[in-house]
Amino acid sequence: xxxxxxxxxxxxxxxxxxxxxxxxxxxxxxxxxxxxxxxxxxxxxxxxxxxxxxxxxxxxxxxxxxxxxxxxxxxxxxxxxxxxxxxxxxxxxxxxxxxxxxxxxxxxxxxxxxxxxxxxxxxxxxxxxxxxxxxxxxxxxxxxxxxxxxxxxxxxxxxxxxxxxxxxxxxxxxxxxxxxxxxxxxxxxxxxxxxxxxxxxxxxxxxxxxxxxxxxxxxxxxxxxxxxxxxxxxxxxxxxxxxxxxxxxxxxxxxxxxxxxxxxxxxxxxxxxxxxxxxxxxxxxxxxxxxxxxxxxxxxxxxxxxxxxxxxxxxxxxxxxxxxxxxxxxxxxxxxxxxxx
Amino acid sequence: xxxxxxxxxxxxxxxxxxxxxxxxxxxxxxxxxxxxxxxxxxxxxxxxxxxxxxxxxxxxxxxxxxxxxxxxxxxxxxxxxxxxxxxxxxxxxxxxxxxxxxxxxxxxxxxxxxxxxxxxxxxxxxxxxxxxxxxxxxxxxxxxxxxxxxxxxxxxxxxxxxxxxxxxxxxxxxxxxxxxxxxxxxxxxxxxxxxxxxxxxxxxxxxxxxxxxxxxxxxxxxxxxxxxxxxxxxxxxxxxxxxxxxxxxxxxxxxxxxxxxxxxxxxxxxxxxxxxxxxxxxxxxxxxxxxxxxxxxxxxxxxxxxxxxxxxxxxxxxxxxxxxxxxxxxxxxxxxxxxxx
Amino acid sequence: xxxxxxxxxxxxxxxxxxxxxxxxxxxxxxxxxxxxxxxxxxxxxxxxxxxxxxxxxxxxxxxxxxxxxxxxxxxxxxxxxxxxxxxxxxxxxxxxxxxxxxxxxxxxxxxxxxxxxxxxxxxxxxxxxxxxxxxxxxxxxxxxxxxxxxxxxxxxxxxxxxxxxxxxxxxxxxxxxxxxxxxxxxxxxxxxxxxxxxxxxxxxxxxxxxxxxxxxxxxxxxxxxxxxxxxxxxxxxxxxxxxxxxxxxxxxxxxxxxxxxxxxxxxxxxxxxxxxxxxxxxxxxxxxxxxxxxxxxxxxxxxxxxxxxxxxxxxxxxxxxxxxxxxxxxxxxxxxxxxxx
Amino acid sequence: xxxxxxxxxxxxxxxxxxxxxxxxxxxxxxxxxxxxxxxxxxxxxxxxxxxxxxxxxxxxxxxxxxxxxxxxxxxxxxxxxxxxxxxxxxxxxxxxxxxxxxxxxxxxxxxxxxxxxxxxxxxxxxxxxxxxxxxxxxxxxxxxxxxxxxxxxxxxxxxxxxxxxxxxxxxxxxxxxxxxxxxxxxxxxxxxxxxxxxxxxxxxxxxxxxxxxxxxxxxxxxxxxxxxxxxxxxxxxxxxxxxxxxxxxxxxxxxxxxxxxxxxxxxxxxxxxxxxxxxxxxxxxxxxxxxxxxxxxxxxxxxxxxxxxxxxxxxxxxxxxxxxxxxxxxxxxxxxxxxxx
Lengths: 341, 341, 341, 341
Prior knowledge:
The structure is a homotetramer of 341-residue chains. With 341 residues, chain A is α/β, with parallel strands linked by helices. Chain A folds into two domains: 2-7 and 252-340, Alpha-Beta Complex (Aspartate Aminotransferase, domain 1), CATH 3.90.1150; 14-249, Aspartate Aminotransferase, domain 2 (3-Layer(aba) Sandwich). The first copy, chain A, contains 14 helices and 14 strands. The first copy, chain A, has helices spanning 14-23, 35-48, 61-72, 86-89, 94-97, 114-122, 149-161, 173-177, 186-192, 222-228, 237-248, 251-272, 292-298, 327-340, and strands at 2-3, 54-58, 77-82, 102-105, 131-138, 165-169, 195-199, 209-213, 276-277, 285-286, 288-291, 302-303, 305-309, 314-320. In chain A, the strands form three sheets. A seven-stranded mixed beta sheet of chain A has the order 2-8-7-6-5-3-4, sandwiched between helices. In chain A, helix 7 links the parallel strand 5 (131-138) and strand 6. In chain A, helix 1 packs across helix 11 and helix 12 packs parallel to helix 14 (327-340). The relative contact order of chain A is 0.17.
């Protein structure tokens, strides 16, 4: 059984494990103030081309979202998110548990548009309603699409006009930035959003996300929030060592590139076979619609998620590739698809 | 510079790193439902001598405390804790951030007594006050003391009389259970408390605490709370692999025993030198009171925490040993203390 | 300028003020434990035909909703509400501020249906999402419709099947129960929901809602929640005296009947004039769609709310009548509508 | 049975009821934006000698505290309060329920001192702890003492030095300002604190507190917080009409003066009888220590609260007078004390 279920089925990239082994007995101070974290932050700042950002390493994505959002907002302020946004759907009410409402907007292919933002602002007019304050987006999105520079720039402008913060969930930012359709860079993103995170967990690390706070007014006392929400690891080094390794050279991007390449290979085959997909994916997640009888047979050899039934005979599934996806497994899957379709 | 500052200055015990390396490319399902977590839970249950407990692996201690307490309590219910309790002092208001008040009691040597519990219950009489519902204790405590079986039994009985839950923070449970003064076991603890956790982070793991829920009514839907608070790791395997290794044989206990032995060696030397300590420690933390001029000289070679000034010329410091503490460093410290005192 | 803006533009029904004046210098214990509150609760229980309910008087509607919902739910549990539900739209995020997500469903004419409930349950399948636990409905609804017995019975059954609590916001329950289309009674409601409230503020009282808790498991410690959320008035008598007066005889129902009759009179006239309405109203709120030029002229003599523009020339407005609406004002409005349309 | 139990045993001062009756059928807009609220706010501003404050009317004291504090603080910030502070003891965890820890300090006679503030600041040094941000005081205090101008000035200075907000709970501010020992005014208070409230409920109103926000940065969006916490009354006029009446002339102060005079009369008699008191009271609350056998006999004619047992034979009780306390009842109580002691 080979899994195309997600991008966190394996451990970490071997270079990361080696880095952990090599540094293991070096003593370091706790709680994210160690030299590994400092060096990792410096490497990321260099990559952004900016010194004036704050970088914090946080174990997981839901945690990063809830800490950042609850730190940034006052009690009556709300988040605008697309209906498919991770904070809306798959975080067990984490944002609401910190006291904040999420205003959903339909979005387009999983992406929030300036029109979504404007609608939210226009329909929230007084103190009987929450006050929209932060637009939440994911790049790559939860349905495998990515933001172009033009799209992000337009959204950023709409947010600034309405005094909204713009926050990017980058759980799969590696995949977005190495997509064939991408024209953004870490530096451009930092210029257009108020804060974002660079996902490690889904791109080769054991755990860890690097939160980048770009806007000065959001930086103050941020470590208090990390601690209060239980995300300040005693052995903060665990996060620093991993991100230092990912950004020491191009490892972070190479791993994402491999994931994308594997997904593209499957997508090409699916297109050749006339298979319909939810949308043309330029990241590491595909949502093909396949006959149930084919899915039953695939399920004997491969693990994947059924997204939703489409009709009596067809279902949409989610296929995910990762830094660790074996090309031979991809080839075998394609072979099997060819013989079944 | 050698650090006696804490028990999380190094990475993980080498056997744990090896286990991570060996299993690295095995695919596993996410979010703590992998075989490694299941096996680790089974090993711990065996050690407890009970099958009827629920075990959840959570990245850190503050997080485990806040998830468990907020899951167990209704909004008007409060925690009783000693003044030195970690939840009261060093969690940046994590418990209050989930909505619950902490009622502090003086305690005795960092331990909560039945009298503390009774005072809290007696002084909270009606709906104008919070309702005490959970007694929080740490074993070993934040000042290095441990609970005897008699003490824990008496406290457990007081709690049950007053319908209070008893929760044990076991960040340093390994040290407590391998203390020369200890007469508790994991099984006895499970019989006397409603929930407790077994700390990995401070006893050889990279991260990770194993929460054990003993009381049936507290078990329902617990995974929702882990997810909502951002503590459900996509690569939950990271926790399972580590705890499987710690409990595959006696590694967990051997690591704690080493830490205790190193602390005892330093404590013996301090006593021989006529040095005063906050209390006789039977765990891996010592709080000696030393002349400031001695501390200034020690600080050139060793890293440690100054707990508090005692008078113009003396301060209390905290010395902590761990599974990784080198005996040669301990010997050198003792040598230096002898020549300075 | 005469206001049809809402049902809280005046003070209280004169009998209520008289009752406050008459009892004014009688001493009574505080915090809702006075004889007035006890007597009022007894009168309501008699009207329900049940002794086994708990009744609490709370100053306002948003407050009643937030206290009840946060007391009834555990942290991971969520509310299901129609898109037009007061808790979703017009409470400034009050429910989320207590930590709970609201799952919205389209509903039908402002009412939640068994299908809405089932969809919410089916799409929330695991601990990555919130757990639906309470269905929130309003009767009369925010758009002026009411639940029939058959509708409420079907919804109640769907909730019980899925172990959901059913909670009815009765801010305008008086209007619903005296509607010409109504076949429910307070007793039938108490049998079908887990808790509901009887609105005083919008039916002749200065302030005050009577929360009725029908299900035993929801009753425990409820006064703690009232106090914690700041809703336990020192002079709780203020609420008791008013509800005692409303339920001493049929005053509560007579006041609502007057409001309904006034609305019906306007609605009849609008229909005769061929005016379109959002829906046929059987309560005290109407949502007619009128030409903007007519609205401009009406606005010189009458105060009302513009709900939303429908096209370039027409808008939907909200007209509300109350216990205090003068029939002469209604007649004048009708006259004016006739001359303008 | 005559009650000296509290200052909210009766309804409202007759002039307030008359004002409600007279204005009853005048239509007004809802939610605190009516002319009565505006006029009341103007009258209070005139009394303060300042136009640059924001005034909000809120139904109750616990509610005012929780709304103001949760609106003013970010999630990691904490309140400093004396051990006897209402927010610490008697609000059922209302502040913690909004997410904030209360740091208690011993205080002196129920009052917070600059030393208390400094201790709190000094012992909260980093992000592992909460960050002290707001000092909470009550005037009059919960034990009947009041702040002198010098005390408040010193405390205000200490707060400003440490960038702490100073908030005054004025549930019994009328009593404090009309005390024979008082040298503060509403204007002086407004200059020394960041926000405070003027209590109506305990000084002749049915319900209602007037929150005065003095510091600009705390004013923004405040009505959102009132709404979100359920404290924005549909019939906001109820609060405006009452405060307009209290501040139309000197009624507010006259009512408090009567309460103080009645308490002073009892205190004088107690001193003459050699009775010990917790402290010399200059407000409307007395805490005498009396023999239990005397208390048993008093309890047959008078209602009061037993504060705490002092020894086997004596207890401290709380006696409270109000605007409504009958002088003849006071005289009778004194007579009875004389014959019993």
